[in-house]
Amino acid sequence: MQPQPQPLNYTNAAILAPMVRIGTLPVRLMALEYGADLVYTPEVVDKGIVGCERVVNEDNGTIDYLSKGVSIFRTHPSEKSRLVFQIGSANADLALQAALTVAQDVSTIDLNCGCPKRFSIHGGMGAALMEEPEKLCGILKNLVDNCGLPVTCKIRIFPDRERTLKLVKMIEATGIKALAVHCRYRDERPREPGHWDRFKEIVDAVSIPVIANGDIKEYADMARIRELSGCAGVMIARGAEANVSIFRKEGRLPLMDIVRQYMRRCLETRNHHSNTKYCVMQMFVEDTKSPYYKPLCEAKSFRAVCKVFDMEGELDAWIKKQEEHGWPTDLDSAPRKAAESKEKAAKNGKAAVAAAAIVEMATTDSTLGKRKQNDLKDEIPAGASVVEVDGTPVTKKHAGGDGASSQPTPADTPQPDVETEVETTTSIPLA
Ligand SMILES: Cc1cc2nc3c(=O)[nH]c(=O)nc-3n(C[C@H](O)[C@H](O)[C@H](O)COP(=O)(O)O)c2cc1C
Question: What Pfam families does the record point to (predicted)?
Protein backbone atom coordinates (compact mmCIF):
# COMPACT_ATOMS: atom_id res chain seq x y z
CA MET A 1 0.00 0.00 0.00
CA GLN A 2 1.30 3.46 -0.89
CA PRO A 3 1.62 6.25 1.73
CA GLN A 4 -1.68 8.06 2.02
CA PRO A 5 -1.65 11.56 0.52
CA GLN A 6 -3.16 14.59 2.21
CA PRO A 7 -6.83 15.08 1.34
CA LEU A 8 -8.17 18.41 0.16
CA ASN A 9 -9.79 20.67 2.72
CA TYR A 10 -13.56 20.26 2.51
CA THR A 11 -14.51 22.35 5.51
CA ASN A 12 -16.76 25.17 4.30
CA ALA A 13 -15.67 24.39 0.76
CA ALA A 14 -17.69 25.70 -2.18
CA ILE A 15 -17.33 23.22 -5.00
CA LEU A 16 -18.01 23.22 -8.73
CA ALA A 17 -19.86 19.96 -9.46
CA PRO A 18 -18.82 17.58 -12.22
CA MET A 19 -20.69 18.59 -15.36
CA VAL A 20 -20.28 16.98 -18.72
CA ARG A 21 -19.55 19.53 -21.45
CA ILE A 22 -19.93 22.44 -19.03
CA GLY A 23 -17.09 21.79 -16.59
CA THR A 24 -14.31 22.15 -19.12
CA LEU A 25 -11.17 24.14 -18.34
CA PRO A 26 -12.46 27.71 -18.94
CA VAL A 27 -15.45 27.22 -16.63
CA ARG A 28 -13.30 25.56 -13.97
CA LEU A 29 -10.80 28.43 -14.05
CA MET A 30 -13.59 30.96 -13.74
CA ALA A 31 -15.22 29.09 -10.87
CA LEU A 32 -11.90 29.22 -9.00
CA GLU A 33 -11.48 32.88 -9.86
CA TYR A 34 -14.94 33.68 -8.43
CA GLY A 35 -14.43 31.83 -5.17
CA ALA A 36 -14.93 28.10 -5.63
CA ASP A 37 -12.48 26.20 -3.45
CA LEU A 38 -12.49 23.01 -5.49
CA VAL A 39 -13.52 22.07 -9.02
CA TYR A 40 -14.47 18.71 -10.53
CA THR A 41 -13.83 17.65 -14.09
CA PRO A 42 -16.76 16.27 -16.03
CA GLU A 43 -16.90 12.49 -15.75
CA VAL A 44 -14.43 10.78 -18.05
CA VAL A 45 -15.06 7.09 -18.68
CA ASP A 46 -12.03 4.96 -17.75
CA LYS A 47 -11.40 3.62 -21.24
CA GLY A 48 -11.60 7.12 -22.65
CA ILE A 49 -8.52 8.28 -20.77
CA VAL A 50 -6.43 5.12 -20.45
CA GLY A 51 -3.72 5.15 -23.08
CA CYS A 52 -3.95 8.88 -23.75
CA GLU A 53 -0.78 10.75 -24.59
CA ARG A 54 0.08 13.66 -22.28
CA VAL A 55 1.13 16.79 -24.14
CA VAL A 56 2.07 20.21 -22.73
CA ASN A 57 0.99 23.04 -25.01
CA GLU A 58 3.74 25.57 -25.51
CA ASP A 59 1.52 28.60 -26.07
CA ASN A 60 -0.58 28.62 -22.92
CA GLY A 61 0.86 25.94 -20.65
CA THR A 62 -2.27 23.81 -20.78
CA ILE A 63 -1.89 20.06 -20.66
CA ASP A 64 -3.82 17.83 -23.01
CA TYR A 65 -4.52 14.14 -22.71
CA LEU A 66 -4.83 13.14 -26.33
CA SER A 67 -6.41 10.08 -27.87
CA LYS A 68 -5.63 9.93 -31.59
CA GLY A 69 -5.10 13.68 -31.62
CA VAL A 70 -8.35 14.40 -29.79
CA SER A 71 -8.11 16.05 -26.39
CA ILE A 72 -10.01 13.93 -23.90
CA PHE A 73 -9.02 16.08 -20.94
CA ARG A 74 -7.41 19.50 -20.82
CA THR A 75 -6.07 21.07 -17.65
CA HIS A 76 -3.72 23.82 -16.51
CA PRO A 77 -1.18 23.59 -13.67
CA SER A 78 -2.87 26.53 -11.92
CA GLU A 79 -5.89 24.36 -11.06
CA LYS A 80 -4.03 21.21 -10.06
CA SER A 81 -4.08 21.77 -6.29
CA ARG A 82 -7.87 22.16 -6.36
CA LEU A 83 -8.80 19.76 -9.13
CA VAL A 84 -10.81 16.58 -8.68
CA PHE A 85 -10.81 14.20 -11.63
CA GLN A 86 -14.04 12.21 -11.92
CA ILE A 87 -13.96 8.75 -13.40
CA GLY A 88 -16.83 6.66 -14.71
CA SER A 89 -16.05 2.99 -14.28
CA ALA A 90 -17.41 -0.44 -13.54
CA ASN A 91 -14.04 -2.12 -13.35
CA ALA A 92 -11.47 -1.79 -10.57
CA ASP A 93 -8.44 -2.33 -12.81
CA LEU A 94 -9.56 0.10 -15.49
CA ALA A 95 -10.50 2.70 -12.89
CA LEU A 96 -7.01 2.45 -11.42
CA GLN A 97 -5.36 2.69 -14.83
CA ALA A 98 -7.47 5.77 -15.56
CA ALA A 99 -6.48 7.36 -12.25
CA LEU A 100 -2.80 6.63 -12.76
CA THR A 101 -2.96 8.13 -16.25
CA VAL A 102 -3.85 11.59 -14.94
CA ALA A 103 -2.43 11.38 -11.40
CA GLN A 104 0.40 13.85 -11.95
CA ASP A 105 -1.99 16.65 -12.95
CA VAL A 106 -4.84 16.36 -10.45
CA SER A 107 -5.30 16.34 -6.67
CA THR A 108 -8.05 13.81 -6.09
CA ILE A 109 -9.75 10.98 -7.92
CA ASP A 110 -13.53 10.74 -7.70
CA LEU A 111 -15.71 7.81 -8.75
CA ASN A 112 -19.10 8.69 -10.21
CA CYS A 113 -21.68 6.45 -8.52
CA GLY A 114 -24.68 8.66 -9.15
CA CYS A 115 -25.21 8.93 -12.87
CA PRO A 116 -28.65 7.51 -13.72
CA LYS A 117 -28.28 7.68 -17.49
CA ARG A 118 -28.87 4.69 -19.66
CA PHE A 119 -25.32 4.70 -20.92
CA SER A 120 -23.88 4.52 -17.43
CA ILE A 121 -26.35 2.03 -16.09
CA HIS A 122 -25.97 -0.30 -19.07
CA GLY A 123 -22.25 -0.25 -18.59
CA GLY A 124 -22.66 -1.05 -14.88
CA MET A 125 -21.33 2.42 -14.02
CA GLY A 126 -22.76 5.43 -12.19
CA ALA A 127 -25.88 4.74 -10.14
CA ALA A 128 -25.76 1.06 -11.17
CA LEU A 129 -22.83 0.70 -8.78
CA MET A 130 -25.09 1.63 -5.88
CA GLU A 131 -27.01 -1.57 -6.59
CA GLU A 132 -23.78 -3.54 -6.31
CA PRO A 133 -22.10 -2.21 -3.18
CA GLU A 134 -19.40 -4.89 -3.16
CA LYS A 135 -18.32 -3.97 -6.65
CA LEU A 136 -18.52 -0.24 -5.90
CA CYS A 137 -16.39 -0.67 -2.80
CA GLY A 138 -13.95 -2.93 -4.65
CA ILE A 139 -13.30 -0.17 -7.18
CA LEU A 140 -12.85 2.42 -4.45
CA LYS A 141 -10.56 0.18 -2.38
CA ASN A 142 -8.33 -0.53 -5.35
CA LEU A 143 -8.07 3.21 -6.01
CA VAL A 144 -7.44 4.05 -2.36
CA ASP A 145 -4.71 1.43 -2.03
CA ASN A 146 -2.93 2.01 -5.30
CA CYS A 147 -3.54 5.32 -7.04
CA GLY A 148 -1.41 7.47 -4.73
CA LEU A 149 -4.00 10.26 -4.50
CA PRO A 150 -6.93 10.88 -2.16
CA VAL A 151 -10.07 9.19 -3.45
CA THR A 152 -13.67 10.35 -3.10
CA CYS A 153 -16.99 9.30 -4.55
CA LYS A 154 -20.29 10.87 -5.51
CA ILE A 155 -23.57 9.06 -4.95
CA ARG A 156 -27.31 9.64 -5.00
CA ILE A 157 -29.61 8.45 -2.22
CA PHE A 158 -32.00 5.51 -2.00
CA PRO A 159 -35.61 6.21 -0.98
CA ASP A 160 -34.90 3.76 1.87
CA ARG A 161 -33.00 5.55 4.64
CA GLU A 162 -31.50 2.45 6.23
CA ARG A 163 -30.25 1.18 2.91
CA THR A 164 -28.60 4.55 2.22
CA LEU A 165 -26.88 4.61 5.60
CA LYS A 166 -25.65 1.04 5.21
CA LEU A 167 -24.16 1.94 1.84
CA VAL A 168 -22.41 5.12 3.01
CA LYS A 169 -20.84 3.25 5.92
CA MET A 170 -19.54 0.58 3.55
CA ILE A 171 -18.17 3.27 1.28
CA GLU A 172 -16.49 5.06 4.17
CA ALA A 173 -14.77 1.83 5.20
CA THR A 174 -12.90 1.74 1.86
CA GLY A 175 -10.77 4.64 3.07
CA ILE A 176 -12.13 7.40 0.82
CA LYS A 177 -11.55 10.96 2.02
CA ALA A 178 -14.92 12.57 1.28
CA LEU A 179 -18.37 11.67 0.02
CA ALA A 180 -20.47 13.86 -2.25
CA VAL A 181 -24.20 13.23 -2.00
CA HIS A 182 -26.66 14.36 -4.66
CA CYS A 183 -29.90 14.37 -2.70
CA ARG A 184 -32.09 12.69 -5.32
CA TYR A 185 -33.11 9.11 -5.97
CA ARG A 186 -31.79 7.43 -9.06
CA ASP A 187 -35.03 7.94 -10.98
CA GLU A 188 -35.70 11.53 -9.95
CA ARG A 189 -35.24 14.21 -12.56
CA PRO A 190 -33.47 17.51 -11.91
CA ARG A 191 -36.76 19.45 -11.99
CA GLU A 192 -38.07 17.43 -9.05
CA PRO A 193 -37.07 18.95 -5.71
CA GLY A 194 -34.11 17.36 -3.97
CA HIS A 195 -34.34 15.90 -0.46
CA TRP A 196 -32.35 18.32 1.67
CA ASP A 197 -33.74 16.62 4.77
CA ARG A 198 -31.68 13.52 3.98
CA PHE A 199 -28.19 15.07 4.33
CA LYS A 200 -28.04 15.25 8.12
CA GLU A 201 -28.51 11.54 8.76
CA ILE A 202 -25.69 10.81 6.32
CA VAL A 203 -23.42 13.40 7.91
CA ASP A 204 -24.18 11.85 11.32
CA ALA A 205 -23.54 8.32 10.07
CA VAL A 206 -19.99 8.83 8.80
CA SER A 207 -16.80 10.52 10.02
CA ILE A 208 -15.51 11.64 6.62
CA PRO A 209 -16.51 15.02 5.19
CA VAL A 210 -19.84 14.98 3.37
CA ILE A 211 -20.40 17.31 0.42
CA ALA A 212 -24.03 18.30 -0.08
CA ASN A 213 -25.30 18.62 -3.63
CA GLY A 214 -28.69 19.35 -5.19
CA ASP A 215 -30.76 22.50 -5.72
CA ILE A 216 -28.22 24.93 -4.31
CA LYS A 217 -29.17 27.92 -6.38
CA GLU A 218 -27.90 30.93 -4.44
CA TYR A 219 -24.72 31.75 -2.57
CA ALA A 220 -26.73 32.03 0.63
CA ASP A 221 -28.06 28.49 0.16
CA MET A 222 -24.59 27.20 0.97
CA ALA A 223 -24.76 28.51 4.53
CA ARG A 224 -28.34 27.25 4.88
CA ILE A 225 -27.48 23.74 3.84
CA ARG A 226 -24.44 23.67 6.12
CA GLU A 227 -26.54 24.80 9.04
CA LEU A 228 -29.31 22.34 8.26
CA SER A 229 -27.10 19.31 7.76
CA GLY A 230 -23.67 19.91 9.28
CA CYS A 231 -22.12 19.01 5.92
CA ALA A 232 -18.52 20.03 5.29
CA GLY A 233 -18.71 21.22 1.70
CA VAL A 234 -21.36 22.30 -0.75
CA MET A 235 -21.40 21.42 -4.45
CA ILE A 236 -23.16 23.41 -7.18
CA ALA A 237 -23.94 22.30 -10.74
CA ARG A 238 -26.77 24.08 -12.59
CA GLY A 239 -26.41 27.32 -10.64
CA ALA A 240 -22.85 27.54 -11.95
CA GLU A 241 -23.84 26.43 -15.42
CA ALA A 242 -26.18 29.44 -15.61
CA ASN A 243 -23.75 31.92 -14.06
CA VAL A 244 -20.43 30.73 -12.71
CA SER A 245 -20.07 33.83 -10.55
CA ILE A 246 -22.56 32.18 -8.16
CA PHE A 247 -19.41 31.42 -6.11
CA ARG A 248 -18.83 35.15 -5.42
CA LYS A 249 -19.69 36.07 -1.88
CA GLU A 250 -20.42 39.64 -3.06
CA GLY A 251 -23.15 38.30 -5.38
CA ARG A 252 -23.39 37.27 -9.00
CA LEU A 253 -21.98 39.45 -11.75
CA PRO A 254 -24.19 40.48 -14.68
CA LEU A 255 -24.42 37.73 -17.28
CA MET A 256 -22.84 39.81 -20.05
CA ASP A 257 -19.73 40.33 -17.91
CA ILE A 258 -19.57 36.59 -17.38
CA VAL A 259 -20.02 35.79 -21.04
CA ARG A 260 -17.23 38.17 -22.07
CA GLN A 261 -14.89 36.94 -19.37
CA TYR A 262 -15.71 33.37 -20.36
CA MET A 263 -14.88 34.09 -24.01
CA ARG A 264 -11.51 35.52 -22.90
CA ARG A 265 -10.80 32.38 -20.89
CA CYS A 266 -11.72 30.33 -23.96
CA LEU A 267 -9.16 32.24 -26.02
CA GLU A 268 -6.48 31.90 -23.36
CA THR A 269 -7.02 28.15 -23.16
CA ARG A 270 -7.81 27.71 -26.87
CA ASN A 271 -11.16 26.19 -26.08
CA HIS A 272 -12.84 24.74 -29.08
CA HIS A 273 -15.67 26.69 -30.72
CA SER A 274 -18.31 23.97 -30.26
CA ASN A 275 -17.78 23.69 -26.52
CA THR A 276 -17.52 27.47 -26.18
CA LYS A 277 -20.79 27.99 -27.98
CA TYR A 278 -22.52 25.23 -26.04
CA CYS A 279 -21.52 26.67 -22.68
CA VAL A 280 -22.54 30.20 -23.64
CA MET A 281 -25.88 28.94 -24.89
CA GLN A 282 -26.48 27.24 -21.57
CA MET A 283 -25.92 30.60 -19.88
CA PHE A 284 -28.82 32.02 -21.92
CA VAL A 285 -31.11 29.07 -21.45
CA GLU A 286 -33.17 31.01 -18.92
CA ASP A 287 -33.51 33.86 -21.39
CA THR A 288 -34.03 32.50 -24.88
CA LYS A 289 -35.82 35.73 -25.81
CA SER A 290 -32.54 37.59 -25.37
CA PRO A 291 -31.40 39.32 -28.60
CA TYR A 292 -28.16 37.34 -28.26
CA TYR A 293 -29.76 33.92 -28.25
CA LYS A 294 -30.76 33.48 -31.90
CA PRO A 295 -27.48 34.81 -33.37
CA LEU A 296 -25.70 32.53 -30.93
CA CYS A 297 -27.67 29.52 -32.15
CA GLU A 298 -26.67 30.42 -35.68
CA ALA A 299 -22.98 30.99 -34.95
CA LYS A 300 -20.90 28.45 -36.83
CA SER A 301 -17.40 29.43 -35.73
CA PHE A 302 -15.52 30.92 -32.81
CA ARG A 303 -15.42 34.22 -34.71
CA ALA A 304 -19.17 34.12 -35.17
CA VAL A 305 -19.66 33.68 -31.42
CA CYS A 306 -17.27 36.59 -30.81
CA LYS A 307 -19.26 38.70 -33.25
CA VAL A 308 -22.45 38.13 -31.28
CA PHE A 309 -20.80 39.73 -28.26
CA ASP A 310 -18.85 42.38 -30.16
CA MET A 311 -15.55 40.71 -29.31
CA GLU A 312 -13.98 40.31 -32.74
CA GLY A 313 -11.33 42.88 -31.82
CA GLU A 314 -10.19 40.70 -28.91
CA LEU A 315 -10.12 37.67 -31.17
CA ASP A 316 -8.00 39.53 -33.75
CA ALA A 317 -5.57 40.68 -31.06
CA TRP A 318 -5.27 37.11 -29.79
CA ILE A 319 -4.67 35.73 -33.30
CA LYS A 320 -2.02 38.39 -33.94
CA LYS A 321 -0.19 37.45 -30.76
CA GLN A 322 -0.41 33.74 -31.48
CA GLU A 323 0.90 34.28 -35.01
CA GLU A 324 3.80 36.39 -33.80
CA HIS A 325 4.95 33.42 -31.75
CA GLY A 326 4.08 30.84 -34.37
CA TRP A 327 1.44 29.37 -32.07
CA PRO A 328 -1.82 27.73 -33.20
CA THR A 329 -4.87 29.86 -33.89
CA ASP A 330 -7.37 27.24 -34.97
CA LEU A 331 -10.43 27.08 -32.75
CA ASP A 332 -12.85 25.54 -35.20
CA SER A 333 -11.56 22.34 -36.70
CA ALA A 334 -12.83 19.73 -34.25
CA PRO A 335 -15.97 18.77 -36.15
CA ARG A 336 -13.79 17.76 -39.10
CA LYS A 337 -11.69 15.60 -36.82
CA ALA A 338 -14.80 14.22 -35.22
CA ALA A 339 -16.25 13.37 -38.57
CA GLU A 340 -13.03 11.63 -39.51
CA SER A 341 -13.04 9.52 -36.40
CA LYS A 342 -16.70 8.75 -36.77
CA GLU A 343 -16.15 7.64 -40.32
CA LYS A 344 -13.25 5.50 -39.21
CA ALA A 345 -15.27 3.93 -36.43
CA ALA A 346 -18.16 3.27 -38.79
CA LYS A 347 -15.76 1.57 -41.19
CA ASN A 348 -14.59 -0.65 -38.38
CA GLY A 349 -18.19 -1.66 -37.87
CA LYS A 350 -18.03 -0.49 -34.25
CA ALA A 351 -19.97 2.08 -32.36
CA ALA A 352 -18.25 5.42 -32.99
CA VAL A 353 -15.60 6.36 -30.51
CA ALA A 354 -16.91 8.58 -27.77
CA ALA A 355 -15.07 11.70 -28.81
CA ALA A 356 -16.56 11.73 -32.27
CA ALA A 357 -20.14 11.61 -31.14
CA ILE A 358 -19.46 14.01 -28.33
CA VAL A 359 -18.04 16.69 -30.54
CA GLU A 360 -21.01 16.25 -32.78
CA MET A 361 -23.37 16.54 -29.83
CA ALA A 362 -21.63 19.64 -28.63
CA THR A 363 -21.73 21.12 -32.10
CA THR A 364 -25.39 20.54 -32.72
CA ASP A 365 -27.27 23.78 -33.07
CA SER A 366 -30.14 23.63 -30.69
CA THR A 367 -32.92 26.12 -31.27
CA LEU A 368 -35.15 24.54 -28.68
CA GLY A 369 -36.79 26.67 -26.08
CA LYS A 370 -35.74 26.59 -22.47
CA ARG A 371 -38.47 24.30 -21.24
CA LYS A 372 -37.99 21.80 -24.00
CA GLN A 373 -34.25 21.78 -23.53
CA ASN A 374 -34.49 21.32 -19.81
CA ASP A 375 -37.09 18.62 -20.13
CA LEU A 376 -35.08 16.80 -22.70
CA LYS A 377 -31.75 17.08 -20.98
CA ASP A 378 -32.49 13.95 -19.03
CA GLU A 379 -33.89 12.00 -21.88
CA ILE A 380 -31.30 12.35 -24.61
CA PRO A 381 -29.84 8.93 -25.22
CA ALA A 382 -26.14 8.43 -25.61
CA GLY A 383 -24.79 9.39 -28.98
CA ALA A 384 -27.92 11.31 -29.90
CA SER A 385 -28.76 14.96 -30.20
CA VAL A 386 -32.01 16.86 -30.15
CA VAL A 387 -33.42 18.47 -33.26
CA GLU A 388 -36.75 20.08 -33.95
CA VAL A 389 -39.09 18.51 -36.49
CA ASP A 390 -42.18 20.58 -37.17
CA GLY A 391 -41.73 22.28 -33.87
CA THR A 392 -41.43 19.03 -31.96
CA PRO A 393 -38.15 18.17 -30.31
CA VAL A 394 -36.95 14.76 -31.31
CA THR A 395 -33.77 12.90 -30.58
CA LYS A 396 -31.63 12.28 -33.59
CA LYS A 397 -29.48 9.20 -33.39
CA HIS A 398 -25.85 9.26 -34.40
CA ALA A 399 -23.56 6.36 -34.97
CA GLY A 400 -22.57 5.06 -31.60
CA GLY A 401 -25.74 5.87 -29.71
CA ASP A 402 -27.03 3.25 -27.34
CA GLY A 403 -30.50 2.54 -26.12
CA ALA A 404 -32.57 4.11 -28.83
CA SER A 405 -30.03 3.00 -31.36
CA SER A 406 -30.75 -0.04 -33.47
CA GLN A 407 -27.43 -1.54 -32.46
CA PRO A 408 -27.01 -2.84 -28.95
CA THR A 409 -24.13 -1.14 -27.18
CA PRO A 410 -21.50 -3.43 -25.76
CA ALA A 411 -21.23 -2.78 -22.06
CA ASP A 412 -17.54 -2.13 -22.33
CA THR A 413 -17.70 0.41 -25.14
CA PRO A 414 -17.22 3.97 -23.90
CA GLN A 415 -20.20 6.01 -25.03
CA PRO A 416 -21.12 9.59 -24.40
CA ASP A 417 -24.15 10.68 -22.46
CA VAL A 418 -25.48 13.88 -21.06
CA GLU A 419 -23.89 13.15 -17.72
CA THR A 420 -21.05 10.97 -18.93
CA GLU A 421 -18.65 11.84 -21.63
CA VAL A 422 -15.19 13.05 -22.30
CA GLU A 423 -14.38 16.73 -22.33
CA THR A 424 -15.10 18.67 -25.45
CA THR A 425 -12.24 21.09 -25.53
CA THR A 426 -11.36 18.57 -28.13
CA SER A 427 -9.43 18.22 -31.29
CA ILE A 428 -7.48 21.41 -31.25
CA PRO A 429 -4.54 20.57 -33.44
CA LEU A 430 -1.31 21.10 -31.60
CA ALA A 431 1.57 23.01 -33.01
C1 LIG B 1 -24.96 19.60 -17.67
C2 LIG B 1 -24.76 18.64 -16.53
C3 LIG B 1 -23.80 17.67 -16.60
C4 LIG B 1 -23.58 16.79 -15.52
N5 LIG B 1 -22.54 15.91 -15.57
C6 LIG B 1 -22.23 15.16 -14.48
C7 LIG B 1 -21.05 14.35 -14.43
O8 LIG B 1 -20.26 14.33 -15.37
N9 LIG B 1 -20.84 13.62 -13.31
C10 LIG B 1 -21.68 13.66 -12.21
O11 LIG B 1 -21.41 13.01 -11.20
N12 LIG B 1 -22.78 14.42 -12.25
C13 LIG B 1 -23.06 15.19 -13.33
N14 LIG B 1 -24.15 16.02 -13.31
C15 LIG B 1 -24.97 16.10 -12.07
C16 LIG B 1 -24.48 17.25 -11.20
O17 LIG B 1 -23.12 17.09 -10.82
C18 LIG B 1 -25.34 17.41 -9.94
O19 LIG B 1 -25.24 16.25 -9.18
C20 LIG B 1 -26.81 17.68 -10.25
O21 LIG B 1 -26.98 18.56 -11.34
C22 LIG B 1 -27.51 18.28 -9.02
O23 LIG B 1 -26.89 19.50 -8.66
P24 LIG B 1 -27.59 20.94 -8.96
O25 LIG B 1 -28.95 20.91 -8.37
O26 LIG B 1 -26.67 21.95 -8.36
O27 LIG B 1 -27.69 21.05 -10.47
C28 LIG B 1 -24.39 16.87 -14.37
C29 LIG B 1 -25.41 17.85 -14.32
C30 LIG B 1 -25.58 18.73 -15.37
C31 LIG B 1 -26.64 19.80 -15.26
Answer: Dus (PF01207)
